[in-house]
Amino acid sequence: MRFLSVNVDSFLIELASLEETLALYSKLQQVKLNGIKELIPAAKTILVFFNEFETTLQKLISCIEKLEIGSSIDRQAEEVIIPIIYDGEDLSQVAELQGMLVAEVIKKHQQSIWNVAFIGFAPGFAYLTSSDHPFTDIPRLKVPRKKIPAGSLGLAGKYSGIYPKDSPGGWQLIGTTLEKMWDLDRKNPALLLPGMKVHFEDVSHRPISVSIPKQIGSTEIISTETKQLKSNHPVFKILGSGLQMLIQDEGRFHQTQVGVGRAGAMDLSAMHMVNRIVGNPIETAVIEILNGGLKVQMQDSAVIAVTGAKSQIKVKYSTGQQAIFESYQPIALDAGDEFHIQTPTAGLRNYLTVRGGFCLQPILNSYSFDSLAILGSEPLKVGDVLYQAKMNTLPIYPHAEAKNDLPKVGDVVELDLVMGPRTDWFDEKSIEQFFDQTWLVTNESNRVGLRLSGDVPLQRKITQELESEGTCTGALQIPPSGQPVLFMNDHPLTGGYPVLASVAKHHWDLVAQIPAGCRIQFRKIAELIDIESKS
């Protein structure tokens, strides 16, 4: 057992096998150590997020080392039966790779007992393994398909998996099911959860109808959501759009076991401040605007505010008069007035709200839109009308200070890094070059991550494939090109490329405001933790 640093509030536990990983994951769920917030199990690792105000890294490591985990999961696993039509377009190829007849592949797959190891790649996508080891490792396709239909059953490595929605992928397809692997109308949107047992029923030669899978037991993991009462008073009508206009709040918490990440406002401090200015609770959902451009007509009297990137707000009153306002102040407007958020002169993202908040519908206990999972309130567009909520408010705060250190195109931005968990996978000279040079933020950057480009790519000294493991916001994942991807709020929960280091939490808001064309200079503030367990 090894403990590897990830960030100031997270670390990675590396274990010898998938079985040991699942046993420890089960044990940690049972004992509920003080301060642990989230666990993301993967092939041979568990990513642990903790509250640094309730515990410390050293305390948690000490407690985990003392746990008696054994080699198997000590609990009664729930069982699910999924009907499968074995008609996949790669079935013959899989049979050839395994030296079997097609009928043998189907029989071995269908007769094996499969276990949900972890959730990754997409919400509801379960990685299934079998202790029966029916197949040798199955290679992924050399050229991934651009679109795999929802319900497709695939094989890759030692795993089986069913695609919960239409998506690209490189798994070898051997069958299909009509069962919904992901359904927001269920209390548990993900049909399969870590620790469950799965049996596949071969229905290739008889009609199949959609039904509720046979399931032993039930695990309710998502609390009932309270809908806001819809206001009768529209407040905003969108007349002009920016590049991206998203509803965001603090994000989704405690949904990682169904494959859903946090998402949420990229610049959290700007989101909190815009709510303070108008007197809303700081966690109230707001509109996140990429690179300005939003134009709105007021449908009712209200107080608004804009924070984040340095932008002016051009107001055209219904009387015909015009005025220019700076951000970080309350602005009182009446029905018929229009305002236009100008393109930022520094920074990248603005945050807009109205006193009283917006009337919205939560999904998985959050209003945030997740651009990777395509989950949450849909992006706003021209013609949309937003309604004002009737929430309790505090006094307006007119004395907020704008951020004065926001980056502009061409600037060099310094970011602090916590090294790990896979620093030792890279050549030491290459790591020195990594810190010596600056890295260009390319136009291929979004809420999933910033794609960086450097003159000297990173070189690995360990070239073997890394099994999927949990990743955090701020992670610098290094693909084979050696050009880093800096993961942001909508990043995938697990990844298959090594992470060199992670941007320290106190710089996440700054990363949210870095426009393409800036360069990043990284600074090391913490060394890699690598502790061999004595257990």
Write structural notes for this entry.
It is a single chain. The protein has 535 residues and is mainly beta. It folds into four domains: 2-65, Gyrase A, domain 2 (2-Layer Sandwich), CATH 3.30.1360.40; 79-215, Cyclophilin (Beta Barrel), CATH 2.40.100.10; 234-387, no CATH class; 412-532, Cyclophilin-like (Cyclophilin), CATH 2.40.100. Helix content is 12%, strand content 32%. It contains seven helices and 35 strands. Strands 26-33-30-31-28-27-34 form a seven-stranded mixed barrel. The longest helix is centred in the first third of the chain and has 14 residues, at 18-31. It is globular. 44% of the residues are buried. Mean pLDDT is 91; it is low at 210-229.
